[in-house]
Amino acid sequence: MKPSKPFVMPPVRIIPPTLERQSESSKSLEEWLNTEETVRDLHFDKRTEEHMEYSYKSITNCTFSHIQFSACKLRSCHFTDVRFEHCDLSNISFAESSLFRVEFISCKLVGTNLPETILNHLTMKDCNARYLNLSMSKISQARFTSCDLRNSDVNDCKLASIAFENCELVESEFSHTPLRGIDLSDSHIRGIRLNLPDIRGAIVNTSQAMELTALLGITIKD
């Protein structure tokens, strides 16, 4: 009998957001959301958005640069072809929203809430995303590059074609999130919290494998 081949995650192929013909917005996002169901084709730059609470709104073909979001809740909203760059989205809530072709570049996402979201073709690069909450989300075609994801919640998620590249995953929660075929070998995973079935089939380096032996209930003796 031939040994079964190890599972290999399909390659991550991110489709970047289509950002075309955007006009510089003279109004805040809140002003637009007060009158429009869909906000589109706009560039927002260097402003503060405070205490926004909206549901079932759509934002498409928009760029947010150097925006400070404070005490905002955008529940069950739809984001398509959107880029956030150098924004502070700490503690904002995107609960039960969908993000399609969305980029977070050099953003602060400390404590940002994205539970029960659908994330497709997502890029997160050079972000401080400590305590990020992605619990119970469906994430496919996503790349996390050079991000600090320490103490984040990625539990009870369904992942497909995901890449973690040079990320800090120290003490993050991955319980009940299968990591089969996902390469963690160039990220830091010390203290990662998961169950034994979750880590089966994941790709790790030698030192990471030594750390994970505790999940097997064995002791290595020199």
UniProtKB/TrEMBL annotation:
Any Pfam family the entry gives: Pentapeptide_4
Domain of life, source organism: Bacteria
InterPro entries recorded: 5peptide_repeat, PA_immunity-related
UniProt-listed Gene3D superfamilies: E3 ubiquitin-protein ligase SopA
Annotated TM spans: none
Protein name, per record: Pentapeptide repeat-containing protein
Organism field: Bacteroides muris
